[in-house]
Design goal:
The complex is a heterodimer of chains A (612) and B (568). In chain A, 9% of the residues lie in helices and 35% in strands. By secondary structure, chain A is mainly β. In chain A, the strands form eight sheets. In chain A, strands 15, 16, 18, 19, 20, 25, 26, 27, 28 and 29 form a ten-stranded antiparallel sheet that branches. A five-stranded antiparallel sheet of chain A has the order 2-33-32-31-30, with no helix packed on it. In chain A, strands 6, 7, 8, 9 and 10 form a five-stranded antiparallel sheet that branches. In chain B, strands 1, 2, 3, 6, 7, 8, 9, 10 and 11 form a nine-stranded antiparallel sheet that branches. A two-stranded antiparallel ribbon of chain B has the order 4-5. Chain B starts with 7 loop residues before the first helix and ends in a 34-residue tail after the last helix. The chains are: A mainly beta (612), B alpha+beta (568). At the A-B interface, loops of A face helix 10 of B.
Chain lengths: 612, 568
Amino acid sequence: MKTENLFKASLIATALASVLTACTIDLDLDDDEDDAEQPSQSESLTLKFSEVATPITTSAQQSILASREVEVNGQLQSIGYNRIMATGHEDSITGEIFGLSKNHMDQPIYFEDGSEYVCNGTNDGVGSGLDYNSLIHKNDKIYMVSQFECQIGSMYVQELAQDAETGALSPVEGTLEFISQKDEFGGWVHCAGQTTPWNSHLGSEEYEPSGALTVGEDGKTGSFYYDAIAPYWDGDLTKASPYYYGWTPEVIIEDNGDVTYHKHYSMGRFAHELAYVMPDNRTVYLSDDGTNVGLFMFVADQEKDLSAGTLYAVKWNQVSKENNGTANLEWVNLGHATNAEIREWVAKKPHLSDIFEVKKPVDGSCEDGYTSINAGSHECIKLQDINQDSVIDEKDEKIASRLETRRFAAYMGATTEFRKEEGITFNERDGKMYIAMSEVASGMNDASSNDTGGPNHIRVDSNACGVVYELNVSADSSIGSDYVAKDMQGLVAGISKSYPAGDKYEGNSCDVDSIASPDNVSYLADSNVLIIGEDTGSHNNNMIWSYDLDEGTLTRIFTTPLGAETTSPFWYKDINGFGYLTAVAQHPSGREADKESEIGYVGPFRFSMNDK
Amino acid sequence: MKAKLISLTSAITGIFLLAGFGETDNQQTELVKELNEALSLQTYQRANLMYNEAAYIPAQCYTKTKNEKGGASNPCYVCHGAGKRPNFFNGTDLQMEYGFTAKYGETNRWKNLFRDFSGQIAQISDREMQDYVKQSNYLNADGSIKLAQRLKDLPSEWDANNNGRWDGFMPDVYFNFDELGFDRDLNNKYTGWRVFAYAPFPGAFFPTNGSTDDVLIRLPELYQTDANGIFDKTVYQINLAVVEAMIKEQDIEIPKVDEKKYQVDLDKDGKIATAAKISYRWAPLKKQMMSYVGQAKTAFEQGKINMAAGLYPVNTEFLHTVRYLDRNADGQMMMSARIKEVRYSKKTAWNNYMQLQNYALSEIKEKHDFPERLRVFEGNSERGLYNGMGWKLQGFIEDKKGELRPQTFEETAFCIGCHSGTSATTDASYAMPRKYTNQHFKNGWYHWSEKGFKGAPELTYPDGRYEYTTYLQNNPWGDEFRSNEQVYKKFYQADGKANTAMFNHLKNDISVLMEPDPERANLLNKAYLSIVREQSYIWGRQPMLAPAKNVYKFVESGTPTDAKVIMR
């Protein structure tokens, strides 16, 4: 198989590089570098988790409950939740503080009370914090790249030690380092991420600030959220621009151990929840988190290089409203661009009005020359001569396609009616991709108020409990990718349910035996297991599910304490023979205070039966 | 395990006549049925279901700002404006439009606002009402605390965590104050509580709108003791003044003290000599720090405790009692002996500026991401409910017989809306930042029973505007529901013109605004007692003398208020 050969090639290259840098390496390829992609791992896996009950008692509702056992190909293994490290951890040697945001000169940011800008919620566990961590097995080391969801979002790299006997992971003192984002205007609201097939950390910047913000002479816009970026610019907001944020960052651990940071302007600007690279190392799916949003695909020119490529937005051609919607997908070409081309325009700090003239509709319609869209609200838009060369042409389209990606997608006839797209994962075994939709509502309904002025492509019934969709993926020569999603239909859906007062499940508004507001999803390669995490207000406790793709059944494997909002499950199948399901617990239980977010994992698992 | 439901329903068994909407017998039956159902959801444990899932959105938020003359009142600005750090909330938009975000919140579930209580009011005689308010449900005749005794002999239904004892706040305030406002127990031992006087928060907390109230503060023992750990009233006084200076961010006068004793330059005159004030000079980034005295000084220097402008020390407690309107022999308004509510809060965790900003910013994002999601709270009636910003709140309220009982989970959730998430609070508090201070009687450390509102001046905003005057100019009725005609008639003439003399009087004597006449006071008491007898607090605690006309039963988010934005 073609992809396998590619992986083998990369494996050899990595091994060689390691030799050249004279690191001590184990040349047993079965047991080392890039294990996740090893051919030996194609052994098919069947997992059966022991089920955790829906928490009913107060004490169960206030605890982290995790499956204690899993059956892997019939063999029973003990697992549990283990913590790696928490926000605020200070490395006594490097002096770095895990989660501390720094300014445009990479100096720590302090508040007036002398407190450091450590991205953490209150000690009652409310607020934003650590969101995603990549475990990168490279250079004979395990690196953990972490990103924080604060408005001034930081990233850190940390080496982890692995206990050879137990597989337990722990931070190595003296290795915590801040990852500077200053060359690309700093970081913003880092959300979910992926460890790419080439072992880099691909992040995200969510909740992009509006380009329509009116920037005053002092740089302030009146948007409290955006203006809070000021400390990054030493209090001088005139140095900032809304267009600096809402992109896809990548962190690469180089072969010599250096950490490099890149911002992929080529992949467009919107509320990036997640960028997910397919096994061809070129095709990337990008989810957009919000109301009336699009779904995007990027095809890079070169493998493992996301700095240039063609961006597409999906058009939903509905077949039926069955299965929470069934559709054929058409990909609308938004054009080609490189990071350098777009960065030039980002740096010019434009205003939305430089890109599109936006007018309010009159009596519900747009005058001639304007395109009617609804990418959040009904607008009449007209592309501008952005580069001021007196013609409005593809050069202007290129700039608009990346700086105002969602509006441009709608302008080009793509669908901007999705509601809260979240996690993405791919199942190579069956050629299927999965996308979580936190809820099916608003623009996804037929002729809802969110469809005013738009094409009303999606016409399905609401599902307040959310749906995980399945997309069949295959080659498409016109696009030049082997991983193009061709259709989309519901796979697992939450079920609205009202439990009467006095019922042991009272207070849940989605069936406790199914998902609610699915968030992150992660498929374990070559297995029957799709992990689905929740971020919900519709279950009293958030849950993580294992969905058996062969049996079509759900098993509850993890529940978070009351009020704990998210976890970010992500599979690592084989790091020196151990498997991990990482999770961020944003609100650990059982403590009156010091409820910092922490990264931990469920495991270790043993998926390789032929070693250790 | 099933949450323990409480027997509030029994409280209304036998009530055949509820005050209602001028209803027929059938409607009465319906209303009784509905209230029974609502009360059946009440629990002292963490409630999975509430009658009003948005109980944290107060009734005031449904006020109809637009008036009949085409103008609009603005009672909103007192809570919703630009917060002063470390309150990073900015709610100025809520002055301009209704913004519940979640559709659920668009429905006003405070039904009592719209009911006609006149029938029930008529059944309560003046004598009965007077006797009722004069009888304490908190203290026994010997000065011991009745409520504490009930909690020691804990009814099992109050025991939310089923461990056989009360783990919540055990009431230990005796309302037995010395000349400095320090509370003492029956053995004349200091309880640590200190009472203070403050300018009531504009609107609902004006006694003319229904209730009197008082507030006490207690710092942890560490702040009450000298360097050797011995209770020292002067040390405690100084530390309270330091806290006050940090909360108000201004110099605070104190009785003259010997700085040498504490080795702190309290007045920051560069000398360790004597001081008659705490000078507020705080800028940690410039290494300008304040200091406590006594044991707290050492703890602070060792980094064991924190200090920051606008924040209280961890484990600070507040006690707030809400009471009926009573009158002394001279006809002067005073607080009743009977307590409507004992409200208690305690700071359980330190959150620095970063964390508090994080909270405010993530709230904005959360509303964007999940507009339909309602707030959920941790805790229970016994332990208290957590506001998400480091405080827990707990309360006691009258049962149908007038004895104090713990508030249910839902009744406590009612407290959280105002004590978090608005721009008006200083570290979740209202009263301390509004405490009377320098140049005022006893620097503000006294109980209302010692001195009432007579002669108490109006506060002013930093730009010199008078606070209550500004409020009345923007909301001439003095209550959020535009129902207090007495206030309106006092301050405005029939033609709508301001009564300048009364406004001038107000500047130096807020009693003219605060105090209702005896007749109104009596009716307000009776209206509230009607709610007590029904136990229908979850439909609203605001005594209304007539069904509210200027309140929405339903209002869509985004509806403009037509109000002019007022900055505080």
